[in-house]
Amino acid sequence: MESSSWGVTVLDLWDMAQGFSYPQVTMLHQYMGSGPSPQSVSSDTAGGVASLEQNKEPAGKPGFWIFEFGSHKALSNEPVAMLRHALPDFEVLHQNFVQPYEGRAEVFIHPFEQSCSPNCEYQQDSVPYIFPVVEDMEESRLGFRSFVLGQYLVKPEVRKASLFLCTNPMYYCNFFTEFNKTVLGYFGLPLHYMVPQEHWAKWTKDFVAMASQPKSFFVSNNPLHAEQVVWQTGRRIPLLRPVVLYRDEVYNPTRENDILLPEPRDACVLNCLIRAFTPEGYPLKFFGKADTDRTFQAFTSFRAVVLFPHDFALMTFYELYAMGVPIFMPSHMSKYLFPYSATVPLLDYVPSDVQQGCEGCEERAPYSPMNLNSGAALKHWVNKVDFFVLPEVQLFPSIAGLLDALPRADVHAISQRMRENRQSRLDDGLGFWRRVTESTFRDGLVELPRS
Question: How far apart are CA 14 and CA 320, in angstroms?
């Protein structure tokens, strides 16, 4: 529709409908246990795996320990890589007490019959959403505290150089209260994700209290998430976009006539559309992720990538950007309606005092950044969406516009400017990571809390 000359768009129709019928959502009840998870212990020098069972000082370099609760592997990679970069004279050992997922939760009952999607026979296998929740936080937190004090922090070499890291969900930060140690929070998903609804009010207050502590270093990894935190708490935490030091691949377009459509949810539809619209003799060919070995080395060999994202917090976008792979994305707002994403209004809880304008709170925005399912809300928050903010992201108005832009783009110049932006952000962010490590080393001089 956006490719036609009509004066009406999908977004206009969505606004006229005034709402969306969300799919049935089921709760996956998670129960936590305390103990080491050897598969998630990593070191940058021991072949990628190291044991923390004995907590001995690593040979050659002094050790620096990161103890994490986080279920999102890519989100965990960013702060760990940055701490290693900030501590070249230390061997950084990372222990995640949760086995991070690499897939995603799925919808319990798909809203459309499979026959509605003849071009995507597996569509029903790739549309979210289940909301997992942590049911026994208080009991698990106390058990974890006893375990860490008895097994890890009792060792002087660990106590003098260790910090706690919480990523996704933000609720996992609860495990690190009362340790009197530095807590690093690196966030990309909403405040109440995985939080039982009956605990939303308490968790909001607890988060504000934790964030105000001098040993808490909480950041958002994208500007929209930072606004979501302001919306729900009235307080702002800093923004620190991913620079992806954990990947070594760089743009190397050996396949200069090939374009990658990597998003599994949409690649089948996009390939169908592109086949229909591509003129005979078009100089470029299109491939899906399934046509590759699914490695970043393969992705960086394409001329460019076309992304139709399924969420505003997409680590794949930041990873490709950091590698300098030219990214083409739709410019029309209707392509950014994500009713199934983690930013759905199902998590849009705001305490009454924040709604009314609490003391010290920022001024309320006219639209919720948790509910971007209207044209007005999208237009209000578009300047907080990195797809439209970071330089050199190539925006196309239609399939026809994409087909015109791809062969004409100076992809090498685009890639160079993307990498320059990434380097600038890397340099600007180093001060934050140094402050985190300085706080951690000061912790080593402080007496442990009693178990």
Answer: 31
